[in-house]
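Hey, resending since the last one bounced:
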Amino acid sequence: MNEELSNPALSTVATVPKAEDRSPLRRLRIESGLSVRALALRADIAVSTINRIERGDRGIGARSRRQIAAVLGCRESDLIALDPQATAPFADLLDALTKLIAAGAHDIAAETAELLAARLREAHTFSGRPPPL
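The structure tokens again:
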């Protein structure tokens, strides 16, 4: 048998983590010892919604973010995965959003984040590149 195939340490094939493995929601949920179903029940959110957020199939809205953060005992900003390299040009905006959330201005922060996301989607649509995960 090929030694490379039988020994994962010798494999040259790079494995890319699944979106749900990079999900801060999934990490926090598991650290809290909750199943998807238990989190959904406590946060009053559909199980399918939690699954889709963890897979990266949908974003996490302001209402859901508040409810999930309350159940998990974390900050809302902890539920958002940010790639430092990709977010460098937006550091000032992200800092402002973090401050709005910390100050309790959730509605303003959510509206601002949604507008920013829409502009990013438009930019990626016009450039022909797929939007980031």
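The longest helix spans residues 106-127.

Sorry for the duplicate.
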